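Workshop exercise sheet. Pairs work together: one partner reads the sequence aloud, the other fills in the structure field after running the prediction. Swap roles for the next sheet.
Pair: D.N. / O.F.
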Amino acid sequence: MKKEETYQERYTRAKARVEEIKAFYSHLTVYIIVNIGIAGLNYYQNGWNPAWFLFPLGGWGIGVIGHAIGTFGSNPFTSKSWEERKIQEFMDKERS
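Structure field:
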């Protein structure tokens, strides 16, 4: 049986969600700015030959994709339903 949520609980959860989304967009902004700088440095040094800026771009890009999946869903290990099941599991353990 699930208890009725108070306004404060809903507000706290919504605020945490907004902070999570803001953190993702901050990460994405830094990724874009830094990689533009790295690409410019690569071009300035040797005119794209070799295009070594692609290595940090791709490696960090994998991290940004993982962050996006974790933030916006599609990851079965960090989805909201998984999170709620785990919270309920820990609450049940404490009760017993």
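Discussion prompt: The radius of gyration is 20 Å. What would you look at next?
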